Amino acid sequence: MAKKQKICIVVASVIAIICIALMSVLLLTGGVSITGDGMYLKAFKAAAKNADEISMEINYKNADHTLTVSQTTEYTNRTGGELTEIFFHTYANAYNIESDFPPVSLSDQATAYPNGLSDGYLNIIDQIKMDGTAGMFQYENKDKTILKVLLPTPLKEGKTAEIYIKYRITLANVAHRLGFVGNTINLGSFYPVPAVFENGEWQVHEYSSNGDPFYNEIFNFDVEIETDTPFIIAHSGTSEEKTAEATREKHITASAIRDFAIVMSTDFKVLSAKSGDAMVNYFYILDKNPEASLKAAVDSVKTFSKTFCAYPYASLAVVETPFLHGGMEYGALVYISNAVSEPAEYERVIVHEIAHQWWFGIVGNDQTRTAWIDEGLAEYSCFVFYKLNPEYKSYDAKKTIENLQNNIVAYQKIVSGVNGEFDRSMSRDINEFNTPLEYVLATYSRGMLLFYNLSEIASFEKLNSGLSSFAKTNAFKFGTRENLVKALEKSCGTKLETYFEGWVSGASA
């Protein structure tokens, strides 16, 4: 894999062997407003009303694992100036086996690809058009994951254009965000999505096998999917059809979400229950105790709604599916890997991924540079869940904290002993982490410790109150370190910038 490596090949090989063992241990251990949910839910309605829309007509052929998509993206120019081009992420092209920045690291290939390396890619098969007029396009990187659409006429500030793209995606046989394994098809991060325009430039980023290389605005979605096989279809958003019925076509809508996803299988079974006003649908295949998994999902939505802010969507799909890592979050849908065989860890992954509906979903952040915010808060939210739901006995907070600290110390000793230095900083480009484990330790583990230690210093209640204010104030927008610190300073009653700087820079333990 071609990455920005800071250590020599020999050192990387030595560390990789130890990393795999440590990763296994780690994965098995487990402006400020106090407005209230009424005003916050009004903000959701306003966000849905003002969001641009992505509409797709999808035709999926299971015979050759391809999907042909006619997509229209409504894009409003909010950049402050005139636009002559719009950048899109085309993440599906990362699955090309020749990619310099593939989604699967070399050490994980044997696990991710059940039948050997498999190719996946996106081909544009018609002219790209703006409001019906053909425009030009070009890829800005070798992997073809950054697409520049040259507009036939300039798009003025405040004006809206419709960008039409027709493409065909060939799926790789891979247990990942996008791909198929057996009778199950994962359709995550598959469609071209406009990049964020920020600080006078497009925020485009290479893909990565470290973490989640995404930074997305919210959109509304209107999706028609037709297949040649009757699937049970899990999806973001809602549809008129009953979720448990196999079908060849479905019309799906979703409002104010950051990522739209679909998982299809001929083998799904479905259990459903309400959590507040939301219907939680659990799609499973291998789970031997699905009732317990559904209960954990329902209780997670209930707990985080009460602690942080109300879950705003009508449904949540929790999907057991083939996936390399423990889980993955999308708008109103989460993957739970069927490779997680230990019941306590499976339960914890459910809680963690549902927490991402708040930290990534409701409150967005740049996951390519500040992943410690959403991953650290999702891990801390697991602690919150188990503390507030003592009937769940599978989580030992003291042991979890000790394990996180020990894993960090062990990895630091390994790297320092071989390489002579160790970078503890948390806000790095995800491709600047030398190994996937280094990324996990910096963003998940140190992120969790940052918030857990603050809960010990300032109090559990004050920290959660501050996070509630942070969530409500930044809902359906982007949360940054600056406005996170501001919200927590108000609730905790003390200055916290030095505390955060110590952790994020790597100076603190």
Description:
The structure is a single chain. The chain is of the alpha+beta class and 509 residues long. The chain has two domains: 9-30 and 378-505, Neutral Protease, domain 2, CATH 1.10.390; 53-361, tricorn interacting facor f3 domain (Immunoglobulin-like). Helix content is 33%, strand content 29%. It contains eleven helices and 25 strands. The chain has helices at residues 9-27, 37-50, 109-112, 290-307, 343-355, 371-388, 397-419, 436-458, 460-473, 481-492, 497-505, and strands at 53-61, 66-76, 83-89, 121-124, 129-130, 133-134, 136-139, 146-155, 160-170, 178-181, 184-188, 193-194, 196-198, 201-203, 219-235, 238-239, 247-257, 261-265, 269-275, 278-284, 315-321, 327-330, 333-337, 363-364, 477-478. Strands 1, 2, 4, 5, 6, 9, 10, 11, 15, 16, 17 and 18 form a twelve-stranded mixed sheet that branches. Strands 19-20-21-23-22 form a five-stranded mixed sheet, with helices on one face. Helix 4 packs parallel to helix 5 (343-355) and helix 9 (460-473) packs across helix 10. The two termini are 31 Å apart.
Structural descriptors:
single chain, about 500 residues, alpha+beta, Neutral Protease, domain 2, Immunoglobulin-like, 12-stranded mixed β-sheet, 5-stranded mixed β-sheet, 25 strands, about 30% strand
